[in-house]
Structure formats: structure tokens, C-alpha cells
Amino acid sequence: MLHRHFLLFKPYGYLSQFTSEFPREARKKRFLGELHNFPEGTMAIGRLDEHSEGLLLLTTDGRVSEQVRSRHVEKEYYAQVDGLITDEAIAELQQGVEIGLPDGRYHTLPSRVRRLEEAPDLPPRGRHIRSERHGPTSWVSIIVTEGKFRQVRKMTAAAGFPTLRLVRVRIGNVWASGLAPGEVQEVAGFDC
Asked: Which of the residues are catalytic?
């Protein structure tokens, strides 16, 4: 069987799945299948929550999915946080922070975190984030090798700087650059 692979810039407001077993959710939510006619058996590699955006890899090959989700592959996110993030908060994030997960408390692995001096060049988000009159915001790059439930959002909140916008820009050596929200690009494979 010839497997197929896709890059997608997941827009804000979509779930990283193709359907829901819950009838109410199936009626009210937006799914990846609305963006492209993916072949049967296509799966998202990892997930982005409904309010997150950015690079999502999709494949029909379960083995590729396992390889990409491993701790050997970096995932880079740009997070717009509430307030001007401090050096202390960045150091705390780099060392790992304690976050809550459905099955209890978890201490994240160390990560690479840096302040972005300027807002990154990202496509506009479909929904307004908030007015500047509510205070300043700042941007950080966060590189992790794990992918716990809403991990990056929980990390920044634990450091005292809640995430307002979250965009995954890179998985391994694959970048989202050049893709518009909702755009799908079929590729020969992933160089992760």
C-alpha cells in the first residue's frame, strides 16, 4: 500500500480530528475533513487543541505517526503570553514546571525557551485576541520533545504568563512557513 502524507496549517477553531462520536460535538464543531478531501485512513500526528493553530502533520502510515510523536522529535511553538515575560519565568520554563493533567500532577521535561523580541510574522488569526488596552503582551518560542494535553498553555500559565495565542511552527525539520490557515500540502514524506 502506498502511504500518503500531508502538511496542514490548522486554523483556529478546528479540532485535530475528522469526526466525533458525540452527536452534539459533531454538529457544533469544525473538523479537519472540512479543509481537504483526505484519503480514508488519514490520521493527525499529535494534536493541536481547538484554540491553537499551526503545523499539523497527517499520514496514512501509523509507523510514521509513532516516529514523529517520539521524544526524539522537537516541536516548536510561538506563544503570545499575557504580560511582558520575565527572565525568571523563562528560566523556570526551561527547567520544567509542574502542570496538572487529567491523571494528576506532572513535571515537564526541560525545554528550550527564548523571548521573541518582535512579534513573529504569522497569518492573522480569524478571531481577535484582545485589546491592547488590557495590558502588554509578549512572544516566546518554546521547544518541547513531549506532547502532554494542552502542555504549552499549562506551562506558560504555571510560570505566571497565560497563553493568549499558540501557534506550532515546526515539527522536527518541517516548518509551517508559507502555509496559510487551512492550506494543505501533500508531501512525499516528513524529514523529522
From this structure: 49
